[in-house]
Specification:
The protein is an alpha+beta fold and about 190 residues long. It contains six helices and five strands; from the N terminus they run αβαβααβαββα. The chain has two domains: about 55 residues; about 120 residues, no CATH class. The strands form two sheets. It has a three-stranded antiparallel β-sheet with strand order 2-4-5.
Length: about 190
């Protein structure tokens, strides 16, 4: 009977060893799977880093012209966007004075567009670089009932209103043309 007990103990010990070995193998396999699974996650993090370095390019800024805007603010914003150009705004009767060859005086720049526009007019205008000069001047007449002129200074320092073929150019292209000619920038005061 002593042999049977010893054989049972040996068999029992062998089963325990096999069981422990299976657990160890199972644990190592699970750990290996976890390690294998974790590696692609690390690659995803690496892929995300370069995407975070991209810089957004700002869109072209449009100037919004509403009745609440002061003429002075509008003229400064216009000159900031188009450094070689100026926007001059007059009462609508100034157009007739120009035709007669009379001198005209700009509107008080501390006033808002709503306070100087025609009584039956109103609305908004959007100014962008791809707008033609003649379209902008016409919109001021249509929307606000005001006479607007885009002007610039020649390289010699003489102030000139746009006319003729220059009125068919866009604001950006005419500003670029003035820069190439050497016209002074930021002359608006």
């Amino acid at each position: 009977m002593a042999k049977t007990t010893t054989t049972k103990k040996a068999t029992s010990a062998a089963k325990k060893t096999t069981s422990v070995a299976k657990k160890t193998t199972s644990t190592k396999a699970t750990a290996a799977k976890k390690t294998t699974t974790a590696k692609p996650a690390a690659k995803k993090t690496t892929t995300a880093k370069p995407a975070a370095k991209k810089v957004a390019v700002p869109k072209a800024v449009e100037l919004s012209v509403t009745g609440n805007k002061k003429i002075e603010t509008l003229c400064k914003e216009f000159n900031k966007k188009f450094p070689c150009l100026q926007l001059c705004i007059f009462y609508s009767y100034a157009r007739d004075q120009v035709k007669k060859g009379e001198s005209i005086t700009p509107i008080d720049r501390s006033k808002t567009l709503a306070s100087v526009r025609r009584a039956n007019s109103g609305g908004d205008i959007s100014i962008s670089g791809n707008k033609k000069i003649k379209s902008l001047e016409k919109e001021f007449d249509t929307v606000f009932g005001l006479y607007a002129q885009v002007c610039y200074y020649t390289p010699e320092g003489r102030g000139v209103y746009t006319s003729g073929s220059s009125d068919d150019m866009t604001l950006s292209s005419f500003n670029e043309y003035c820069e190439k000619r050497g016209c002074p920038q930021n002359k608006w005061k």
